[in-house]
């Protein structure tokens, strides 16, 4: 079987990242994904990559780029959730000198920087509706206008988008433009979580052992049969990134260069006894209740729908004890979208000094 491994370039800024730094195509599911990537990569089609945090969405995007005709041109990955609303337009499209306070010189945006190559818009669901409109225009017209300028600049960029939230639910909640969704979603790649491609776990773990052996001089360790079994049966909530951190920790504490089960810092599965405490500490999201919420979001009757959505968001927020993360999870939206709507509705007050 093939043992293809792709890795991210070593960039110091990634030290606090939750991104996966390696991807392997050993499991049959992953091999089918790789074959599909090689099939669609040579086209110019936009691709929407969906997967949990830490599953390697950026690595998949880089693989698409490397198998395309743009492989010798720039590949740039941008985290759309990393910029404030006031800066994201400048970051994406650039700005002219004097466009805003502090703009002491002209600056090229990410679209211009990626000209001729590929641009990955990670966490695409965190973009505001205002920026979504501008992005849609760029995709349609293939030109950008820098902030503070009236001159359009042609760009030749293949756009890939990645998300860990359900954009279809965001559309129903009027937080993501349907026309932009279909523009981005010419091809969809669903990246399965690590627990659903068990054949990749040991090859990835071995890769991380080799990585720390070469980079930091750690002794070359191996797994006991019991440790391998424990790795394969684990539920991997943090996916590949969690695996890398776990291997790093195991290399520090293992004896005689053999990683044993007790060297692996694994979280208990939510199906085990710990779930009882979790249920007592937070509201239970009943599957039937979740179905009702999703069904209600599918109502679309103009002003009636808007009012209904407002009340539904308030109910969900209170149901989750004013916890934004749990509310977002319940409604299938990103936390940034929920936060923005709660501020609009007056349910969440943010001090100007904290902005």
From TrEMBL:
<dbReference type="InterPro" id="IPR025943">
    <property type="entry name" value="Sigma_54_int_dom_ATP-bd_2"/>
</dbReference>
<protein>
    <recommendedName>
        <fullName>Sigma-54 factor interaction domain-containing protein</fullName>
    </recommendedName>
</protein>
<dbReference type="InterPro" id="IPR027417">
    <property type="entry name" value="P-loop_NTPase"/>
</dbReference>
<keyword id="KW-0805">Transcription regulation</keyword>
<dbReference type="GO" id="GO:0005524">
    <property type="term" value="F:ATP binding"/>
</dbReference>
<keyword id="KW-0067">ATP-binding</keyword>
<dbReference type="InterPro" id="IPR025662">
    <property type="entry name" value="Sigma_54_int_dom_ATP-bd_1"/>
</dbReference>
<dbReference type="GO" id="GO:0003677">
    <property type="term" value="F:DNA binding"/>
</dbReference>
<keyword id="KW-0547">Nucleotide-binding</keyword>
<feature type="domain" description="Sigma-54 factor interaction">
    <location>
        <begin position="23"/>
        <end position="252"/>
    </location>
</feature>
<dbReference type="GO" id="GO:0006355">
    <property type="term" value="P:regulation of DNA-templated transcription"/>
</dbReference>
<dbReference type="Pfam" id="PF25601">
    <property type="entry name" value="AAA_lid_14"/>
</dbReference>
<dbReference type="Pfam" id="PF00158">
    <property type="entry name" value="Sigma54_activat"/>
</dbReference>
<keyword id="KW-0804">Transcription</keyword>
<dbReference type="InterPro" id="IPR025944">
    <property type="entry name" value="Sigma_54_int_dom_CS"/>
</dbReference>
<dbReference type="InterPro" id="IPR009057">
    <property type="entry name" value="Homeodomain-like_sf"/>
</dbReference>
<dbReference type="InterPro" id="IPR058031">
    <property type="entry name" value="AAA_lid_NorR"/>
</dbReference>
<dbReference type="InterPro" id="IPR002078">
    <property type="entry name" value="Sigma_54_int"/>
</dbReference>
<dbReference type="InterPro" id="IPR003593">
    <property type="entry name" value="AAA+_ATPase"/>
</dbReference>
<keyword id="KW-0238">DNA-binding</keyword>
């Amino acid at each position: 079987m093939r043992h293809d491994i792709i890795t991210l370039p070593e960039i110091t800024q990634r030290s606090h990242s939750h991104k996966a730094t390696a991807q392997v195509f050993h499991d049959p599911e992953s091999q089918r994904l790789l074959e599909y990537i090689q099939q669609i990569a040579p086209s110019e089609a936009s691709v929407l990559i969906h997967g949990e945090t830490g599953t390697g969405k950026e690595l998949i995007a880089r693989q698409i780029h490397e198998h395309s005709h743009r492989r010798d041109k720039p590949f740039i990955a941008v985290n759309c959730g990393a910029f404030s609303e006031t800066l994201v337009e400048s970051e994406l499209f650039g700005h002219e000198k004097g466009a805003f306070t502090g703009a002491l010189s002209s600056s090229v945006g990410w679209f211009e920087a990626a000209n001729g190559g590929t641009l990955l818009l990670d966490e695409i669901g965190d973009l505001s509706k205002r920026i979504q409109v501008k992005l849609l225009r760029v995709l349609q017209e293939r030109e950008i206008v820098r902030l503070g300028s009236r001159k359009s600049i042609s760009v030749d960029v293949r756009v890939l988008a990645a998300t860990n939230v359900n954009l279809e639910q965001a559309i129903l909640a009027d937080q993501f433009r349907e026309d932009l969704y279909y523009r981005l979603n010419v091809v969809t790649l669903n990246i399965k979580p690590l627990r659903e491609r068990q054949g990749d776990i040991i090859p990835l773990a071995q890769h991380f052992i080799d990585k720390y052996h070469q980079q930091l001089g750690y002794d070359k360790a191996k797994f006991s049969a019991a440790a391998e079994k424990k790795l394969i049966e684990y539920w991997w909530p943090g996916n590949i990134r969690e695996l890398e951190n776990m291997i790093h920790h195991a290399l520090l504490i293992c004896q005689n260069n053999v990683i044993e089960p007790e060297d692996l810092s694994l979280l208990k599965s939510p199906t085990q006894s710990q779930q009882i405490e979790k249920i007592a500490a937070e509201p239970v999201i009943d599957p039937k209740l979740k179905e009702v919420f999703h069904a209600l979001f599918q109502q679309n009757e103009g002003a009636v729908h808007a009012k209904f959505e407002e009340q539904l968001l308030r109910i969900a927020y209170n149901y989750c004890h004013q916890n934004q993360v749990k509310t977002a999870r319940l409604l299938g939206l990103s936390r940034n979208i929920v936060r923005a709507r709660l501020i609009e509705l007056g349910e969440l007050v943010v001090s100007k000094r904290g902005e």
